[in-house]
Amino acid sequence: MKAGLAAVLAAAGWLVPAARGAPPRRDPVVLISAGRRVRWSELQAAIRQVPDPPERVGLEREPLRAARWYGRLVALAQAARRLGLESPALARQPLLARDQGLAARLMRRLARGIRPSLARQHAYYRRHPSRFRQIRARYILISDRAALAPRSRRSRRAARRMARRIALALRRGERFAAAARRYSNDATTRSRGGELGFVSPGQVIPRFWRHLAALRQGEISPPFATRFGWNIVQAGAAREAPFATIAALIAGRLRQQALDRRVAAVLAAAHIRVQSAALERAGR
């Protein structure tokens, strides 16, 4: 009876053969996307092919997130196949590379013909003035060996102490430009006294912009950490960016928005369904 039950389950796709003497393992359908039934073994194979180790480990630990990620990729790959975008060379690629290649070809096809008119660009500019505010800024970067693109071998704690000492010196009257030339680890701006020129929200990381935007002209921020190290920023004059200087940026945003809508339509049509119960059982 047990052997008969195993045969029935195997035929239904719930069990796959194991090595001789080992019990069969479950291989249920855990995801349906654009009509493609993805089994647990395929999802695991795709995860193993993710090249970035931290991302791969994260997907291995979170099967539900992995299924949602792969479901979207499968939907795009299936749409590319329906448009005839597959090639023999691509079909020979490993599982994940093949689906990613198909998705990339679909994205290029969807992006065709997206050309925002000048009138739409002007309208976007008028509707979102805060997005194009610019503030002239100087800054001092104190890097450490744990920072992204490290520019110093000092420890994170030593960098924080140094930033605090510089902030104290600035409060006592040291000129910001002189302090930047002496201490900053940003080789590009150090010789200019930390001068960044006019920056807008899209040009700097969000945490940097929040600190800068909170300052009045001439004010200096307390030290704050980003992934690049410890930062001290001084605000200068503010202005609204001239349209001519950011027209290309606006056009890019409008193109991306249009592409996002097209991709969303593809994903909606795929009717992605994660089989949560099967996923949970297979992951035990």
Give a written overview of the molecule:
The chain has 284 residues and is an alpha+beta fold. 53% of the residues lie in helices and 16% in strands. The chain contains 13 helices and nine strands. The chain has helices spanning 2-11, 40-48, 53-61, 63-82, 88-91, 95-111, 118-127, 156-171, 176-183, 187-190, 206-213, 243-270, 276-282, and strands at residues 15-16, 25-26, 29-33, 36-39, 133-142, 195-199, 224-226, 229-240, 273-274. The strands form three sheets. A four-stranded antiparallel beta sheet has the order 6-5-8-7. A three-stranded antiparallel beta sheet has the order 4-3-9. A two-stranded antiparallel sheet has the order 1-2. Strand 3 and strand 4 form a beta hairpin. Helix 3 packs across helix 4 (63-82) and helix 4 packs across helix 6. The chain is extended. The two termini are 25 Å apart.
